[in-house]
Amino acid sequence: MSDYLKSYVKPIKIENVDEYYSLIQEISLSDTSRIFAENLSHSAHINMLIKEISILLANSLRLYEMGYFDNAYYSLRSANELATVMLGLSDKEDFKIKSL
Description:
- The chain has a domain at 55-91.
- It starts with a helix and ends with a helix.
- It has 100 residues and is an all-alpha fold.
- The chain has five helices and no strands.
- Helix content is 70%, strand content 0%.
């Protein structure tokens, strides 16, 4: 990376970042099969979204620390959008989801 570009990238250390990663790991390890026991297919899709959200959250922390603030923002925004979609789908039956 050229010195010119380095002047725009300002890494910032996040205090207690390990605690944030630990919380993200707890989210990623959550299992919805107990909630949607009657419909394991639906549960698997929700679990897949939870894993993706966790990855996006971890990426946003790392990108922020590296100084790529806009990328961190968009990763966080994508996690938020997926969480919104997940919440919207979690209370619907499979046949209603397929008809969307």
